[in-house]
Amino acid sequence: NWVMADTGVVETLLRLIEKVDDGVDSLEVAASLGVDHQVIVGAVKSLQALGDIISAELRSSKHWELTEEGTEIAEQGSHEARVFSSIPLEGLAQSELMKLSFGKIGFSKAMSNKWIRVDKSHEGGPRIFKTVESIDDQVREKLLLVKKANTAQLEEKEKNELKKRKLLSEVTVKSYWISKGISFSTTITKQETELTPEMVANGSWKEKKFKPYNFEAMGVAPDCGHLHPLMKVRTQFRQIFLEMGFTEMPTNNFIESSFWNFDSLFQPQQHPARDQHDTFFLSDPALAHEFPQDYLERVKKVHSEGGFGSQGYKYDWKIEEAQKNILRTHTTAVSARMLYKLAQQKFTPVKYFSIDRVFRNETLDATHLAEFHQIEGVVADYGLTLGDLMGILHQFFTKLGITKLRFKPAYNPYTEPSMEVFSYHEGLKKWVEVGNSGVFRPEMLLPMGLPEDVSVIAWGLSLERPTMIKYGINNIRELVGHKVNLQMVYDSPICRLES
Amino acid sequence: MPTVGVKRDLLFKALGRTYTDEEFDELCFEFGLELDEITSEKEIISREQGDSKASGASDTILYKIDVPANRYDLLCLEGLVRGLQVFKNTLEAPRYRRVSPSSGEPQKLVITKETAAVRPHAVAAVLRNITFTQERYDSFIELQEKLHQNICRLRSLVAIGTHDLDTISGPFTYTAKPPGDISFKPLNQTKEYTATQLMSLYKTDSHLRHYLHIIEDKPVYPVIYDSNGIVLSMPPIINGDHSKITLKTKNVFIECTATDVTKAKIVLDMMVTMFSEYCSQPFTVEEAEVVYPDGKTYKYPELAYRKEKLSSEFINRKVGINESTEKIAQLLTRMCLLSQATGVGDEIEVEIPPTRSDIIHACDIMEDAAMAYGFNNIPRTTPRTYTVANQQFVPSLFLGHSCPLRQIVAHLSSLTTLCHHQVARTTLLPGLLKTIAANRKMPLPLKLFEISDVVLKDETKDVGARNSRRFCAVYYNKSPGFEVIHGLLDRTMQLLEVKSVRGDGYHIQAADDSTFFPGRCAEIFVRGKSVGRLGVLHPDVINRFELTMPCSALEMDIEPFL
Asked: Where are the transmembrane segments (chain B) (predicted)?
């Protein structure tokens, strides 16, 4: 623990800072206290951990330092100076001089400085003599300047020459510029990190100082679950329907007969939607085997001959087509079953809804899968009008935050009138289709046995499209299916459709 | 929805005025059409085949207009213009008349009994003294194509053949022969082929190959001859070259062969009502006789006008408006349904012309009144329907796990190449494991659950199958975490108020299941009944899903709790 071990240094440092107006450099402090720079750095760090007692700004500077050889020279003189002083008046045999550690380098330097001469013809081998009385050891003096940090008195050229001789090196030093912090004080107390049960129990928290929190940091992520966006949006739609008094239909039957999916809805057997290219037919169980017989006969009649005020389609209606099992292409098949059931009792008005999967043999792309969720609303009552359908759609879409609606005439085999619902998109600055709607045809309702003056209005939309818009998802594969992006699931916010 | 491409300037010329794109779009919207795209031939070619191919193409602006699937009378420029002009009150709907030939007998088409095996019906008519221009001719050909694509169900229900009557001579015979016995020079070919040769010739034809299957497997093929043995057509594949229509053609013989006679009559009515406009006596069509094998004779085209009576109160009540009988009669007249108040109460007599085969019930008339009134002019009202809402039970199992929703796997006998799945899913586990495999970059542990329906065969249901709601959860981490999955089961049961006891509550007991690691699998019993399994997945299973960590899983039936 730095604070404990170096309290002395920390306190000394704080007193130094107290005395100056601006601040101190950590390197200078180390030099003046005669301690290693790292000791001061440690003191700075521990003070920083306590809050804003000091402010420390990291600085870096370059400076010159003596190498090992340079240090030796500064202490003992340059090699050539030492050679000079080794030579007595009577001279020295060259072989003797070369035995000295500095002899070889010092000899050539002293020679070029003309401090010494060699008498090669001397008796007993070459002998060295001084040529001058005294010398000026400039190298040593320059290095001494560097050692005393007076580098400024040296010229660049001189420094580079010494660097070349490996006597000097240039180093980068990091230091702190230390000044008073907002809560500067020369006395420091140890700060507690957290409140403990003991402090609460014995009241010692009153005397303690607490380490400040870093509010910039993120908290710890809670260990929680995440609902899929499609589920969140579905919940909102269910909520809207329930608020409007709609009852949820049981839609747990993905496999449906063509009879309930198409024939009961007055969709002719040659209709393109009943093609293999659009619908998934089942191979096992391939056929449905049970139908309400009376009702089936009425459906057959209205298709092939007409009746109930209709001309019919006038074609040869075949039970074999009606029996074919498929994956339902719309939840309207469920609505048909529910309305048939309703017709078997004394009629009471109903409002139904469902949100569940439907299946289409579509070309797959970024916005289409072979299955999607259909949202459907149905109202059956005496005397409902087209104006009522538009009114209820207005209420429904208002709850979704969509208030600007208009309606386009459209075609659908089982509704008449049929209307496409458009809303004005403020971002795109144009009308975009948001759903389909219509009044169920008498050829669908009357064979079921519903009273003649009962109208049934209905509308539908997909769950995926509003979800993709709401959560900004461009590729449906990221939303639905096993390639779902779990990070997107984790990150997606709650769903409020009206905002 | 069929899309009709028309040249903008030609359309405006025929409409007698010009519109801005926005104005025309608005008009379409009101009339139930959709101006889908504004383009040009050049732009289309450039988009489909590249800029280099488009260099010589026309810059003429084309409107691509989406037409409702039941409005065959709007599938060509002539029909669109007529519909819009009547709608805008600038034209009275024409009256279409069937007339006898000015001299001599009507053209006769005799059906032989052999056709019963392949394509038993035919209808026919003659357009006299017609004047084609390039544009009219193109539209004439294009309408046949649009009808073939839509009401004719790719020629399977009805096929249209049009001929230069001056190159052939009646009576005509519609018969069926073995393909080897039929030989003629087909449209735009230079030599004769037998029907057998033609079928192989057209195997590679990008257009015609789609129709071959309609007759390919039949022992006999349909064929129409003139009195000199010249082949008019081999429906529904190709016409003969001999009788082909040119810009110079003055008299047109139209035949439609069919498996559905109702649709054949509609198709013939559409062809003649649209193009009789260009006859020397506009909107008249010369009749033709069709003789069936039993000797019965029919005159075509039917061009039937049907009268319906309804009350203005009915329309007001269904639409939610309050208009006078006269006003409603005017609205209907603007939809090509000539109407007038009969003077008996609020009764209106509505005449449905042969062009409006989509009008089959009073509700269709009501819709047209609403369209002419303008859907967006109808006051929006709130129904007074009083109901109490109920919901299906959805168990709220918020257990601290992610819920990826996954597609049900379905599939079946469909023949398309789009199908990747062969069966409806019967278990949820593979989907969750695939989800993990697709999200391997996510930090561990991964804890996923799904509550969804699977499909099971069930003889007691009318369709032979039923949905069953499942709950599946997986835990994927460096250690298998059986205790985590087990704890999830305990918590689920606690929320569902099922106690941990044998008999009345729930318990688990060791089980063998090749999906799980030996000795690490248990069966879940609720009130004595097995509802599912949990355990540590077998390493082979983990590997096959391209996963690398141990994994424990739970899957159970939750139907008993719904």
From this structure: none
Query: Measured between CB atoms, which of A230, A248, A418 is closest to B390?
Result: A248
Radius of gyration of chain A (CA): 48
Vertex B468: Cα angle to B467 and B472 (nearest 5): 130
Contacts of A416 in chain B (CB under 8 A): 361, 363-364, 366-367
Residue holding tokens 């007074």? Answer: B384
Best mutation target, B408, B448, B462, to test chain A (most A CBs within 10 A): B462
Q: Check CB contact under 8 Å for B407 and A489.
A: no
Chain B residue numbers touching A223 (CB-CB < 8 A): 400
Angstrom distance (rounded) from CA A193 to CA A208: 10
Q: Quote the CA–CA distance of A486 and B402 in Å, as a whole number.
A: 8
> What's the CA gap between B134 and B112, in Å, rounded?
37
Amino acid at A32: S
Please tell me which residue of chain B has the smallest CA distance to A279.
B414
Contact A130, A118 (CB under 8 A): no
Alpha-carbon distance of A356 to A252, in angstroms, equals: 8
A410-462 confidence digits (pLDDT tens): 999 999 999 999 999 888 888 989 999 999 999 999 999 999 999 999 999 99
- Residue B272 predicted with pLDDT over 50: yes
Of the candidates A182, A171, A180, A162, the residue with the CA atom closest to the CA atom of residue A27: A171
What lies within 8 Å, CB to CB, of A47 at 6+ separation is: A10, A13, A14, A53, A54, A56, A188
Q: Do B389 and A351 touch (CB under 8 A)?
A: yes
Contact between B219 and B234 under an 8 Å Cβ cutoff? The reply is no
Residue B440 at interface with chain A, using a CB cutoff of 8 Å:
no
Residue B281 CB-half CA count within 13 A: 14
Q: Return contacts of A13-20, CB within 8 angstroms, 24+ apart.
A: A13/A40, A13/A43, A13/A44, A13/A47, A13/A178, A14/A47, A14/A53, A14/A54, A14/A185, A14/A186, A14/A188, A15/A186, A17/A54, A17/A178, A17/A179, A17/A180, A17/A184, A18/A180, A18/A184, A18/A186
What's the pLDDT tens digit per position in B177-197? 999 999 999 999 999 999 999
Cβ-based contacts of B392 with chain A (< 8 Å):
248-250
CA distance B33 to B36: 9
Question: Which among B137, B167, B171, B190 has a CA at the least distance from the CA of B244?
Answer: B167
- List the beta strands (DSSP E) in A41-150: 54-66, 92-93, 116-119, 127-130
Taken in order A22, A27, A33, A39, is the CA torsion positive or negative?
positive
The CA distance from B392 to the nearest CA of chain A, in Å, is 6
Nearest to A486 among B34, B408, B442 (CB): B442
**Number of C-alpha atoms within 13 angstroms, CB side, residue A456?**
32
Among candidates B485, B559, B491, B487, which has minimal Cα distance to B527?
A: B559
- The amino acid that residue B316 corresponds to is N
Instruction: Tell me the H-state helices in B130-190.
Output: 134-149
Integer Cα distance of B504 and B498 in angstroms: 8
> Which among A225, A247, A313 has CB closest to B387?
A247
The 8-class DSSP code of residue B45 comes to H
Helix axis angle for A26-33 and A37-48, nearest 10°, is: 120
pLDDT digits (tens, 9 = 90+) for B62-84: 999 999 999 999 999 999 999 99
Q: pLDDT tier at B436 (50, 70, 90 boundaries)? A: very high
Instruction: Give the residue from A76, A53, A52 showing the smallest Cα distance to A66.
Output: A76
pLDDT of residue A60: 84
- Cα B11 from Cα B21, distance rounded (Å): 13
- How much is the mean pLDDT over chain B? 91
Summarised one tens digit per residue, pLDDT across range B226-266 is 999 999 999 999 999 999 999 999 999 999 999 999 999 99
Q: Do strands B107-111 and B288-291 pair parallel, antiparallel, or not at all (unpaired)?
A: parallel
